[in-house]
Write a structure and sequence with these properties.
The protein is of the alpha/beta class. The protein has eight helices and 19 strands. The strands form four sheets. Strands 10, 12, 14, 15, 16, 18 and 19 form a seven-stranded mixed β-sheet that branches. Helix 6 links the parallel strand 6 (169-173) and strand 7 (200-204). Helix 3 (107-117) packs across helix 4 (122-136), helix 3 (107-117) crosses helix 5 and helix 4 crosses helix 5.
């Protein structure tokens, strides 16, 4: 082992048996041997990484990629099937908070039990008792049975014990959502203090901002292998780019499924629209239901609206920065002197975040044909990641709705920009 390293993981593999229907009693195991059929699942496939003394390493990846299994191997809760793990110093883990707590014992008694699991002697626990109590903020409840604690109190006591062990290596697995916001901030401050004293930290979390802010290096795991490792910022960027691509694929599959379900609805809606169009000349402005999601006099109707990406493909998934076209196909039932076409983009709360129409842009569209298509192009889509609602409408020159669709469809945007809000704005930082 290199003298500068605290942890060395070399070519580690780990398999688990996944039973289809495992018998639990001797009778079931004897009579129903077929139930013991299983498959071996490779959870870790030859992973290798090193952590220097006093360094903080982050482990990121989607659920089931092997992060928690890696941490359990480091704590020696389980052992690898092949490969080697070498560690230098006392290890403390924040994986299963409260493991070893007895519900009928008091908080004080459980401090002694839990701390002893981490290898502390009674004298060492006595020396740390006041610090543990002060950090947990549970002084008045400390002599009550743990079964009377709320889940937040339970976790705070366990966290307080774990971080007051003078460990050389601290392993943390998704347990930083402990207590209220103030206590969480207190936990992070304590972890920074522990790190500053030279403790080696391995942090497993889905919070990429925590990885970048707390860890110098990071490892991205995918399907039991290390997909990327390096500086935390570079690793997070690689991970988010992969997850964005995966999200686009999933959204496109969901989009195709929805299209099949919506075809029947569209056919039924078309019949209703035809009837409304026939009765359009009888409608008056007072008869228009402005509260409905679909309303208008139907002198001109929207046959369909399509959202098209840069490749010319009709889709509902877009990337920030690509060109987006909205095509509105219409049919004239009763000619007007002028038509105004409009689009609106809303968030899921129904708040308008962008809108435009041909009248605003001083474009006059007179009656020319019974059918047609108007295309609105949004150059370099500036929206950030999220789900949005599209509204489309046709009104006359006076703003009277002819065919107005609220919530015509939803679409998703995937972005590399991690800014907050709705819009991705080109920007730069300069430090003088």
């Amino acid at each position: 082992m290199k003298p500068e390293n605290a942890i060395e993981v070399k070519n580690v593999t780990k398999k688990f048996r996944v039973y289809q229907d495992k018998g639990h009693t001797l009778k079931e195991k004897t009579l129903f041997r077929g139930r013991r059929a299983y498959e071996e699942r490779l959870v870790l496939d030859g992973i290798s990484f090193e952590v220097e003394k006093g360094e903080a390493l982050g482990l990121i990846g989607h659920n089931g990629c092997g992060k928690s299994t890696t941490l359990k191997l480091l704590t020696r809760i389980m052992y690898p099937d092949s490969g080697s793990i070498e560690m230098c110093g006392r290890v403390s883990s924040l994986i299963e908070l409260g493991a070893g707590f007895h519900p009928d014992m008091s908080g004080r008694e459980n401090i002694y039990i839990n701390a002893s699991i981490f290898g502390l002697t009674k004298r060492e626990i006595d020396a740390r008792m006041e610090d543990i109590i002060a950090f947990s903020e549970l002084g008045e409840y400390l002599d009550n049975p743990v079964r009377t604690y709320s889940s937040g109190m339970y976790m705070r006591l366990a966290f307080s014990v774990a971080i007051n062990v003078d460990a050389d290596i601290l392993l943390i697995d998704e347990i930083l959502a402990v207590g209220d916001a103030n206590f969480q901030a207190k936990c992070f401050d304590k972890l920074r203090e522990i790190k500053a004293k030279g403790t080696t930290v391995v942090l497993v979390t889905h919070d990429t901002s925590a990885i970048e802010g707390f860890c110098k290096k990071a490892v991205w795991m995918n399907q039991g292998k290390i997909a990327f490792q390096g500086k935390s910022g570079e690793t997070v960027d690689a991970y988010l780019a992969f997850m964005n691509g995966k999200k686009i694929t999933e959204l496109q599959k969901e989009e195709q499924r929805k299209k099949c379900l919506e075809e029947t609805k569209k056919m039924e809606a078309a019949k209703i629209k035809e009837q409304q169009a026939e009765d359009g000349s009888k409608n008056t402005e007072q008869e228009i239901d402005y509260e409905a999601n679909h309303f208008g006099r139907m002198h001109i109707v929207i046959e369909r609206a399509e959202m098209v990406n840069e490749e010319g493909k009709v889709t509902a998934v877009f990337r920030t920065g690509e060109n987006l076209k909205i095509k509105i196909y219409y049919q004239v039932k009763q000619p007007l002197k002028e038509y105004v076409f409009g689009v609106g983009i809303y968030n899921l709360n129904g708040e308008n975040i962008y809108g435009n129409n041909t009248q605003i842009d001083r474009i006059c569209i007179p009656h020319t044909a019974e059918k047609g298509c108007v295309t609105y192009t949004l150059d370099k889509l500036p929206l950030l990641s999220g789900k949005y609602i599209l509204n489309v409408a046709i009104v006359d020159a006076d703003g009277v709705p002819m065919d107005f669709y609220r919530n015509y469809c939803t679409f998703d945007v995937v972005s590399k920009d991690r800014s907050t809000g709705y819009f991705s704005i080109e920007h730069s930082w300069e430090i003088a």
